[in-house]
Write a structure and sequence with these properties.
Blueprint: E1 17-18, E2 30-33, E3 39-42, H1 57-60, H2 65-73, H3 79-83, H4 87-94, H5 98-111, H6 119-126, E4 131-132, H7 137-142, E5 147-148, E6 151-156, H8 163-173, E7 186-191, H9 198-207, H10 212-217, E8 219-223, H11 227-235, H12 237-243, E9 246-252, H13 256-261, H14 268-289, E10 292-297, E11 299-301, E12 311-313, H15 316-322, E13 325-331, E14 336-343, E15 351-357, E16 360-362
Parallel strand pairs: 6-10, 6-13, 7-8, 7-9, 9-10
Antiparallel strand pairs: 1-2, 2-3, 4-5, 11-12, 13-14, 14-15, 15-16
């Protein structure tokens, strides 16, 4: 977690307050007030979703200790991760037999009680969700309090619409304590277009009174050179996430490598299949580790649209269905940007104006 360089409170988020412990769970929650007076509660700390088994895991799933060690080596060290995996994936990545993989996955799902559950249980899981502030009160209000964990937030738009600036801002605010609208953790950044600029992070950190060196040390950056490399980085991210308290994963941009590697209609089906697998892997990370995933997306202009905005996001129906929250960014006059919610399972349609300044994202006066 990044440390402040001074005690100055200028331009900082107002100090939130703690609500009384919930009667059902006994846990205190952090309440943050938005500009319209709405109070949004967050858990006091990030909580992993994986339950600790009462006896050795290899006994629960009915395999030998040596076989289970193969699963751990391949990154399948938790009951929930095994339960959320296809048996064929265990065969391919862990080198176990098909019968062993089927047996392990079946037992893990039974232990984790994967299946139907009542709505109140789903609500209880939703209470683990955190939100990270965007730096803009208007944008936070539009998103119901900020960028949500256990979800994929996608922003698409033309160049210079604010997508990467939004990513840089989240890299800073995610490191803030939960009480200040952050996630209290570190960041994993996959750069597919060579656009990550540490100098910009330094500016944004300084504007919040944070130690820039500490902020940069908490951002783990990988440069991706093609779609296969990009997918591999996500598949191998498990160990980094576990060992470095990663609470935010950024992919900027999600579709650039796929567009470059698969050109022409003849490769469209293969591209979409790989993109679908890649986005599912990102969602799995979000679910397993209660972290936020933010991805940027490129756009194309559709010549068949004669009236209205011809701008359309890349990725087709695969990405449209997989993104939990979909934002459309476009540039306005001067330093202003417009964000519009295009798709969300729980938020109403709406848009807001925010600014991009030297110190990061903010609100228009």
């Amino acid at each position: 977690m990044a440390k402040k360089t001074s005690e100055s409170t200028e331009n900082q988020t107002p100090t939130p307050y703690l609500t009384p412990p919930d009667a059902a769970t006994g846990n205190g929650t952090t309440a943050v007030q938005t500009t319209d007076g709405q109070v949004i509660t967050q858990p006091p700390a990030a909580a992993p979703l994986t339950e600790k088994p009462s006896k050795p895991m290899h006994e629960i799933i009915g395999i030998s200790a040596s076989t289970f060690e193969k699963l751990v080596t391949a990154g399948y060290e938790s009951m929930e991760r095994i339960a959320m995996t296809m048996p064929g994936e265990l065969v391919e990545l862990a080198g176990v037999s098909e019968d062993t993989a089927n047996k392990a996955v079946r037992a893990a799902r039974q232990h984790m009680q994967f299946g139907f559950q009542t709505g109140d249980k789903v609500l209880e899981k939703r209470r683990l969700v955190n939100r990270v502030t965007t730096g803009s009160k208007e944008l936070d209000a539009l998103l119901g309090g900020g960028v949500e964990t256990q979800a994929i937030t996608e922003a698409f738009g033309k160049f210079s619409s604010g997508k990467s600036q939004f990513a840089f801002q989240l890299c800073v605010t995610a490191q803030l304590p939960v009480e200040q609208g952050g996630l209290g953790g570190n960041v994993l950044f996959i750069d597919t277009e060579n656009t990550f600029r540490p100098e910009r992070i330094v500016q944004m950190a300084a504007a919040r009174g944070l130690n820039a060196d500490d902020v940069l040390k908490n951002i783990h950056v990988a440069r991706s050179y093609n779609s296969d490399h990009q997918m591999l980085l996500v598949e191998k991210a498990e160990e980094i996430i576990r060992n470095n308290n990663i609470r935010l994963v950024v992919v900027d941009s999600l579709t650039a490598g796929f567009r470059a590697d698969y050109t022409g209609r003849g490769t469209l089906a293969e591209r979409q299949q790989k993109l679908n697998k890649h986005v599912h892997a990102l969602q799995k990370l979000a679910d397993l580790h209660n972290l936020a995933v933010y991805v940027t997306n490129q756009v194309i202009d559709r010549p068949d649209i004669l009236f209205g905005d011809p701008t359309s996001p890349v990725g087709g129906n695969v990405l449209a269905h997989m993104s939990t929250y979909r934002l459309y960014f476009r540039r306005s006059k001067e330093n202003r940007r417009i964000a519009k919610i295009v798709d969300s399972p729980n938020l109403p349609d709406g848009e807001c104006v925010f600014t991009v300044n030297e110190g990061g994202l903010g609100d228009a006066e």
